[in-house]
Amino acid sequence: MAIWRSIEPGFVDVPFAEYSHRLGAPEPGYERRRYVAIAAGSFVGLGWALLPMNGNLSHAYVSVRVAPEWRRRGFGRAIEAQIRAELPAQRTELHGCVEFFDGHASEGWLVAVARLGYTEVERSVLSALPLPVANDVLDSLAGPTPAGYRVESFQGAVPVAYQAGVGILDGLVNADASTGDAHVEPVPVHPEDYRAQVALLQAAGRDLLTSLALTDDERVVGYTVLQLPSDPRREVYQQGTLVLAEHRGHGLGLALKVANLRALQALDRGDPKVTTGNNDANRWMREINQRLGFQPSGSEVWFRRLVEAS
Question: In the record, what terms sit under GO molecular function (predicted)?
Fold first, then answer.
């Protein structure tokens, strides 16, 4: 965990049981490849590649982390080269990101990523919302639910009748965000994979809170998802928020977020904060988060590298 402590001030370690379970379990809809670097009998760093298996088959999501005391010795470059050398030939579009918190942005990191052949395609603002949010604040923001819609909240997997709709929204979340000239195909998550993803999280001690925007005829047209940590001292992660384009402009995004925060605080877990990230171009969601009380805490820079098929 020292790697993450060096990146994020105030980082609270992930419980070992949760972390080890997540490392060993399969990830529905993806193939995850893991790498560990050892030098002189000591842990140096780690890396992984996440390969989508149900679409975007030219993509690979790559991450490399090096322990603080081993940095600037070429180990990050070596781990990335090993990952890239073992990727299937059709994986020609590599994506990765670097996060900076509370002014800890190191231009050296950006330079190092550029030297590996990656170019910047997107920047996001990271922000945090201290908990609890006062009920009168939520009351002032909530307002009446727009006519023709209702909002419902669920812990764990949503009911089976709504899972296909949630899968469509899951597939749209990444594709809906601006990523420069990088194209991400919207691939719906099959209900079976959705249930497996939720089961994986719960087996590791985590859980989901999902609020859905439903039409009068029971169609899922919007959602927001909070991922709950196994240790309530850790932050709650805002996993995604999306309203279908044809249903925007009715205040559903704000209504969903308020409903999910109410559901979270009703659990009375003592969670310290909610963290989220929003693309610089997504001013609408950033405005919603500002109204809720989110404050900037850092930034996230996404990179891409194109490689020739071998």
Answer: acyltransferase activity, transferring groups other than amino-acyl groups
Of 21, 9, 68, nearest in space to 43 by CA: 68
Sheet holding 207-215, edge to edge: 30-39, 42-52, 59-66, 93-101, 295-306, 119-130, 273-279, 236-243, 220-228, 207-215, 149-155
Distance of CA 288 to the CA centre of its chain: 18
Q: Per the structure block, which two tokens stand in for 209?
A: 């809170």
116 and 140 inside one domain: no
Is the peptide bond prior to 132 cis by the omega test (within 30 degrees of 0)? yes
Q: How many domains does the chain have?
A: 2
| Residues 71, 81: Cα–Cα separation, whole Å | 16
Radius of gyration of the chain measured on its C-alpha atoms: 20
CATH at residue 64: 3.40.630.30
Its domain, for residue 265, covers 128-296
Q: Quick one: which of 285, 234, 262, 252 has its CA closest to 155?
A: 262
Are 25 and 48 members of one domain? yes
* Rounded mean pLDDT for each run of 10 residues along the chain, 310 residues in total: 54 70 78 94 94 95 90 92 96 90 62 87 90 94 90 98 97 70 84 95 95 98 97 92 95 95 96 91 87 91 86
